[in-house]
Amino acid sequence: MSKTEKLLVTGYGGFVAGSVVWQALRAGNWDVYALSLDEPPRQEKDFHVIQFDLLDDTRLRQVFTQIQPKAVIHTAALADIDYCENHPDDATRVNVGITRDLAGLCAESGARMTLCSTDTVFDGRRGMYVETDAPNPLNHYAQTKVEAEETVRTTLEWGVIARLSLVMGLPVLGAGNSFLAKMIDSLQRGEKVKFPANEVRTPIDVITLGGALLELAATDFTGTIHLAGSTRLNRYQMACQLARDFGYSDDAVMATDSNAMEGRAPRPNDASLDNTRAKNTLRTPMRPLMDGLRLVKEAKAIQTP
Ligand SMILES: NC(=O)c1ccc[n+]([C@@H]2O[C@H](COP(=O)([O-])OP(=O)(O)OC[C@H]3O[C@@H](n4cnc5c(N)ncnc54)[C@H](OP(=O)(O)O)[C@@H]3O)[C@@H](O)[C@H]2O)c1
Fold first, then answer.
1. Which amino acids bring their CB within 6 angstroms of ligand 1?
2. How far is the CA of 175 from the centre of ligand 1 (A)?
3. What single string gives the DSSP state of each residue in 201-253?
4. pTM exceeds 0.90 for this model
5. What proportion of the chain, given as a percentage, has pLDDT over 70?
6. Superfamily for 6-177+203-230+271-288?
7. Mean pLDDT score of the chain, rounded to an integer?
8. What average pLDDT does this structure show over 92-110?
């Protein structure tokens, strides 16, 4: 691939985009344009950060038309489930509206587009969902993602819908919303941490995920793909394993039931994803949880500012 090809990544200051951008810069085969609401502008050879609100569709069109990206990885979203439940109009505007605008621009220009969707589009009654299973969202966040998926599917013949399992890791660029970073901070302070035992997931580490999204941006795969790790476990079991690996006792980890907690949006119990399609399609391996954690630690150790 020629380095003149431009990659547009939305949500640069977020957890997932940080890994995508970091790996794209290290690989050195893209001219990277990262869009951010909060991160300050930056202009370097092969790396540009442009700061604006993606809800400004006029500015988005202007920026997109100037860049003419070959591929777009759309991570930007309101991703806090309870915030989305309490601010449904905001969530729809950001998660559906921006996706619609971007898909329209990609349709006009022929750019590839990969949307980051979620395992929580499923109702969690069965688990190990395949790409052809019917979504049945339990909360407004998941509903917006189902609508965003539909927008990409109907606007772009060549669109990619990547449904991500719970993402595990430490932020590699920017702050990002990492449960692992928060958990380690709490454990370091001697506090107990709580994780739901009712939520069964197939967590994927943020490094493998970033690599898979970059691979999808450069291949001709179209359609829906589940990006998920190869370990299926509940979030309490996962937290115990991670805590032990960082040298803490799992006595500090307490099990909760997220669907028995007052004032919280409903969550799917078993939203584990079958990753067979990803294993058959991508060179990036879908890894077991603790292999993913090793990659996360290596990335943190070699990370450059
Ligand atoms: N993390 C997970 O476990 C998980 C699991 C399944 C699916 N997903 C999906 O994967 C994607 C990335 O997740 P994440 O964990 O990286 O989320 P995140 O850390 O919350 O990052 C989302 C980013 O979206 C950007 N954003 C939000 N509103 C914006 C606006 N109006 N204009 C411009 N940018 C805006 C912000 O970027 P700036 O900081 O640059 O302003 C924000 O940091 C999301 O679509 C999420 O729904 C995540």
1. 11-17, 36-39, 53-55, 75-79, 94, 116, 118, 164, 166-167, 176-177
2. 11
3. E--EEHHHHHHHHHHHHHS---EEEEE--S--EEHHHHHHHHHHHTT--GGGE
4. yes
5. 97
6. NAD(P)-binding Rossmann-like Domain (3.40.50.720)
7. 95
8. 98
